[in-house]
Amino acid sequence: MANVVITGGSRGIGAAAVRLFAARGDRVWFLYAGNHAAAETVARETGAVAIQCDVADAAAVQAAFSQIPGVDILICSAGIAHYGLISQITEAEWDRLFAVNVKGIYHCVNAALPFFLRQQRGVILTVSSMWGRVGASCEAAYSATKGAVIALTKALAQELGPSGIRVNCVAPGVIATDMCANLDAETMAQLARDSCVGRNGRPEDVAKAMEYLADAQFVTGHVLNVDGGYIM
What we know:
- 47% of the residues lie in helices and 16% in strands.
- It is α/β, with parallel strands linked by helices and 232 residues long.
- The protein has a 7-stranded parallel sheet with strand order 3-2-1-4-5-6-7, sandwiched between helices.
- Helix 1 crosses helix 8.
């Protein structure tokens, strides 16, 4: 039984991860930004503990981790998206994307490190995107943050490996979550046809990949595509 901390746990991929790790008997705490109703539902259904926290706020992250007695697995799933031309995104929007998607990982890793170093073991899982690997038109800022997540994952795997800490990343493709809300049904259907398996992903598909990486003792520094073969 592991102590698992999951960011962005009230919805989408994060909520699927909360459900999976709680169902297998782990003790789960999850952070959420502000959707109290969704967080309460996930907590009630799973028995996990919900803690409101903006991962972009260093003090808030430290306060959240002070309520957690131990960490074996840290899953950094919190993330936001932006769709639009590079000329249209404001500097504030650009900064907020990096604050949540990249700096949020920095804050959470630093909060979890004392637990990991004390026990000389731990698992960190990050969430990038297939667009972090190949880029996407009209998603330049989002792609940039997700590319940074991949580089950060590989660097941390090297830095923390001697302390018994494994660091891996999942790179989801088109997953049926709120992040696809800007896409119409026809576009979603075309994206499904473009994948090798003929469908778009579900949050549970990504959660299962996270479970594999959490348990795979000889895998670190790896980026696992969970995109139905959309990119290769």
